[in-house]
Amino acid sequence: MKRIAVMSSGGDAPGMNAFIRSVVRSAINRGLEAYGVRRGFQGLIDNDIEQMDKRSVSNIMQRGGTILQTARCDEFKTKKGLRQAIRNLNFHGIDGLVVLGGDGSLTGALSLHEAGFPVIGAPGTIDNDLGGTDMAIGVDTALNTVLDAVDKIKETASSHQRAFIVEVMGRNCGYIALISGIIGGAEMICIPEKPFELMDVVRLVEKAYVSGKTHCIIIIAEGANHSTHAIKKTLDARIEEAGFETRVTILGHIQRGGSPTAFDRLLATRLGAAAVDHLIRGESGKMVGLVGNKITTTPLRQIIDYRRELDMSLYDLARSLEF
């Protein structure tokens, strides 16, 4: 193996630049040439591939986002798109590819592997919904971003005696909502994995008001079975019961941005170097991950076929800490 390439795909996550830096420098220091693919799978199809050196990745570890950029690409899902991507990789003499992203990105990586092109995947998503790793790159930073926002919201909520509904990312997985709710001291956590009734929220807010609390924080994942709008509408209609006025904060894409934490920088660096090592060994079709503080690999097929389930003992923990 003489040349490897790295790409980021799907939704961005803090720590992606640290990962790219690690792949490029590890490869060069092992005597390989390193290439970067811009705009994910779209860049593979468009031949947006360029050689990188150590200077290409200088001073990027602390930056959020991804210097290689990212994009969605439906064309890659077709046989024609896949063939074009492999032709472009072969044109540059690239012998192996490292793909950083979430489940959609790793599905694309699996397609390349099954077509005979060597590829190693790595988990980069704030949802933390992938098997094969305890934490994905970007999760810790996103949690800290949410926690900082919740802490500030609690201060203004207490000043005005209000209930706040804080919506966080998590269309199919409630990890961000659950963990930020526990460490942020939320009065209620609403996640896709645990359906609830709107009157449950009313009763909870009423209980907070009657008990003398000066605020009530509800953290909801965007994929919960009732929407943020529905909760606010219900609470507004029953303000005499609920007691508190209600406000909504949707954190949105701020959760994907920001300088990565120390944990995410180290995780990204370890996984990037490991991805290069596994390619050099001739391995393919695997994802590098962190399990029990050790770097491991899991077949991409297993990652795609078996979505990680949320640890519901953490939800039980949150319930055990209710006011």
Structure, described:
The chain is an alpha/beta fold and 323 residues long. The protein has 2 domains: 3-138 and 260-305, 3-Layer(aba) Sandwich (Rossmann fold); 139-256, Rossmann fold, CATH 3.40.50.460. Helices cover 43% and strands 19% of the residues. The chain contains 12 helices and 11 strands. The chain has helices spanning 16-29, 40-46, 79-91, 103-114, 139-160, 175-183, 198-210, 228-237, 239-242, 262-280, 300-305, 312-320; strands at 3-8, 33-37, 49-52, 96-101, 119-123, 162-168, 188-190, 216-221, 245-250, 286-291, 294-299. A 7-stranded mixed sheet has the order 3-2-1-4-5-10-11, with helices on both faces. The longest helix has 22 residues, at 139-160. The protein is elongated and about 70 Å long. It starts with a strand and ends with a helix. The mean pLDDT is 96.
Features:
elongated, 12 helices, alpha/beta, 2 domains, 323 residues, 11 strands, Rossmann fold
| Overall CATH architecture of the largest domain | 3-Layer(aba) Sandwich
Residue share in helices? 40-55%
How many domains make up the 3D coordinates?
2
Order of helices and strands: EHEHEHEHEHEHEHEHHEHEEHH
Task: Assign the CATH topology of the largest domain.
Answer: Rossmann fold
Q: How are strands sequenced across the largest beta sheet? A: 3-2-1-4-5-10-11
